[in-house]
Amino acid sequence: MPDEVSRQTEALPLREGFTTGTAAAAAAHAAVIRLLGDKALDTVAVALPPFLETPALLPETDLRLSIPIVANGMEPGSNSAWAAVIKDGGDDPDATHGVSVIVHAATHPFPASAGAMHGPVSLASGLLPPGQGPVHLYSGAGIGLVTLPGLPVVPGEPAINPEPRKQITFAALEAATHYGYSGPLHLLISVPEGTERARKTLNARLGITGGISILGTRGTVRPYSHEAWKATISQGISVASSLGLDTLLFSTGRRSERLGFGLYPELAPQCGIQVADFAAFALREIAGCGFARIIWCCFPGKLLKLAQGLEWTHANSAEADIAMLAQYCAESGGSDALAAAVAALPTATGAFALMARTPAIHDAVLRRVGSRAFAVLQAWLARSGSCCASCCPGLTLCVFSMQETLLLRLP
């Protein structure tokens, strides 16, 4: 890390926060404890994602975070209990920083007006421990509803992402097991300020209406300035070079990195560099390092941003060119109605999901966008000085679906 960034970090250490998913999990645990044991908790040690796809629903790590419970109680005459947590974004506050996340717990169903999700927890039933009753999740006030395809949650369900659903379920089951209870649990999650706070997010553009999303693939919020993230990229490249590695696996985040290593398991862990939105910067940083191969892993949304030639691909400052996808759709044989439907969608992921109903058109558009993105990456490599007449890193582009299948690999 450069000296200037190091000095800033030492002078002003950044405090991590926790996600809305972790807040809901802590409130769920405390509410079930209050329901079954009539015990009021001040703090809860919450297990953090990711969670294994096993009947025990165990987390992949044993990491836990202590979360304050700001209030809890019993609902008079309703045989249900509740607990509240204030979401803390740490030194990287977002639109949900400071909201109250409240979970009501009961052993009986909540009214249909509470907005029950489809299924026991929108997880495979085999994920619940043997003999354990189902865990039903409900969305209350302030939780958004998904209305468009392309997100981790299908249209018609509340905007509570898959990993937080597992985290909330696990937290509730831990509490129930403590009291020997194995019957059904019903959890109503609400964020009273959610509707107002959602106006400060991109939820409406993404087709999430009426409130915020419950998010969190890692459970914590790790603050990073642009300078610090760039320094991390530079440091990772430097380490890989110093180890004599000849390949770098660039990815936009942890998930795409994991999928990339699944394709190339022979690579050392130090080959992996999560470049986030700093696409062109990462390629400039490898100049003179002597790498023979660059593997670039991403999802369709970032692929489109690369095809547009955007050096900085963050959603807040780089609009996705959905019109390009609609044009390619029409030129690949798509009907006028399909092209118009694609043009009306807010995300590339949603557009590709819609075109996937006609595989030939989907694949043709994906290949055109991928070829254009590949050419952009090659141009950035050339401009960075990483290419010369006798030496240029080989480039491979891998694109994955949100369902984690390989969609395209170039060349």
Give a verbal description of the structure.
The longest helix is centred in the C-terminal third of the chain and has 26 residues, at 359-384. The radius of gyration is 23 Å and the shape is globular. 35% of the residues lie in helices and 18% in strands. The chain has a five-stranded mixed beta sheet with strand order 4-5-6-9-7. Strands 13-12-14-15-16 form a five-stranded mixed beta sheet, with helices on both faces. It has two domains: 17-221, 2-Layer Sandwich (CbiD-like), CATH 3.30.2110.10; 226-410, no CATH class. It has helices spanning 3-11, 20-37, 162-178, 194-198, 226-242, 254-263, 279-285, 300-307, 322-331, 336-344, 348-355, 359-384; strands at residues 17-18, 43-47, 64-68, 71-75, 80-86, 100-106, 135-139, 145-146, 185-190, 208-209, 220-221, 247-251, 272-274, 293-298, 394-400, 406-410. By secondary structure, it is an alpha/beta fold.
